[in-house]
Design brief:
Blueprint lengths: L7 E6 L7 H14 L4 E6 L1 H4 L6 H17 L8 E4 L5 H10 L4 H5 L2 H9 L6 H4 L1 H11 L4 E2 L6 H18 L7 E2 L35 H10 L15 H14 L3 H7 L5 H28 L1 H15 L9 H7 L13
Parallel strand pairs: 1-2, 2-3, 4-5
Helix pairs in contact: 3-13, 4-8, 8-9, 10-13, 11-13
Bound molecules: tryptophan (TRP).
Tryptophan binds next to strand 1 and helix 8.
């Protein structure tokens, strides 16, 4: 079957720290559900990660850990294209070109830039500013149809669509305009201590996050310490952000509905509820952790997956992936898009 027959999905994650339960339940677990019906590229966006200072040795390890975790949750390297962004030079090349089609006024409106600039006030570099443009390049390079994105990345997808539309308006149909993938959306997992903000792998308070690789005892402990709300009812509601978050976690791990869970814990105290939540998380993560440990022993296999991913993502059929791009540029190698100007 031709690759083109399936719709193409692109998504990526930064190797900027340990994966959290939020990344897993909100994104990774869903990626495994897409792999049969779509032609998926799952990228390890290491070039995005260097928009904040990274230690090279740590970054390399984190990228490899992230790849291992992709595989451990069941993202199949045979069915999908799993690769490092930095192994495909076209991301940076297209990123530059798109920079020239992006207005500062647009970038100035990006809320993630404002947040990150506030957080890294000593290093507000131009890469951080043009981060969304590199993300646009990731997506547009492969003529992506659909991008599964969380709320926090919607603005970046919007700017991607705007940039693509602008380029097409000037040079003719070149890029496919990507859309957000609206499917069964993953659970949005919030911080354990501050349940009105998202669980984030860069959170400094370790009690806010459950990591994919946390030991069972650590998980139980973090869940037990999670912030709860006033009252003793176990119910989902805007006035109960802490309990709602724990219910979401419980349901995402067990497959139960919120209504079923509320019924199950009707009359139970917070203590018993939290124990059940902790146990559900442990049960969900243990098999993944086991697989990570097995994969880590198999260095050659991981090397091979990385190498194959780099090859697959740069195959001619992908880059330039779209016939119109090939025609327009009459090139089948690197810098395909630059040739518009040469
Ligand atoms: N910015 C995304 C995030 O932090 C990661 C990312 C980079 C991405 N390029 C992408 C996500 C392309 C989807 C598509 O979550």
């Amino acid at each position: 079957m031709k690759v083109e027959e399936k719709k193409r999905i692109f998504s990526g994650m930064q190797p900027s720290g340990m994966i959290t339960l939020g990344n897993y339940l909100g994104a990774l677990k869903n990626w495994t559900n897409l792999q049969d019906d779509y032609d998926c590229l799952y990228c390890i966006v290491d070039m995005h990660a260097i928009t904040v200072r990274q230690d090279p040795v740590k970054l390399r390890k984190q990228a490899r850990d992230l790849l291992t975790q992709y595989l451990a949750v069941g993202i199949d390297p045979e069915k999908n294209t799993i690769y490092y962004q930095s192994h495909v030079s076209q991301h940076a090349e297209l990123g530059w070109i798109l920079n020239c089609f992006t207005y500062m006024g647009e970038l100035n409106r990006m809320t993630q830039f404002k947040d990150k600039a506030a957080k890294h006030a000593d290093n507000i570099n131009a890469g951080l500013y043009t981060y969304p443009v590199l993300m646009a390049a990731d997506i547009l390079l492969y003529q992506t149809d659909l991008v599964p994105v969380g709320e926090d990345q919607r603005q970046h997808l919007e700017i991607t669509r705007d940039i693509a539309g602008r380029f097409n308006g000037i040079y003719g149909e070149t890029f496919k305009i990507p859309e957000a993938y609206i499917g069964k959306v993953g659970a949005r997992i919030m911080s354990l201590q501050e349940p009105t903000k998202k669980m984030s792998k860069s959170d400094e308070n370790k009690n806010n996050t459950i990591l994919l690789m946390d030991e069972p005892a650590v998980i139980m402990n973090k869940v037990k310490r999670a912030m709860t709300d006033s009252g003793s009812e176990i119910r989902h509601g805007e006035d109960k952000p802490g309990i709602s978050n724990l219910l979401n976690i419980y349901c995402a791990c067990t497959g139960k509905t919120i209504a079923e869970a509320e019924k199950e814990f009707d009359g139970a105290g917070y203590g018993a509820f939290k124990t059940a939540v902790g146990e559900a998380v442990v049960a969900e993560l243990e098999p993944v952790q086991k697989r990570v440990k097995e994969l880590e022993k198999n260095k050659d296999y991981l090397d091979e997956v990385i190498k194959n991913g780099a090859d697959k993502s740069t195959e001619e059929s992908w880059i330039p992936s779209c016939d119109s791009l090939i025609e327009k540029m009459e090139m089948d190698e690197v810098l395909c898009i630059l040739s518009i100007f040469l």
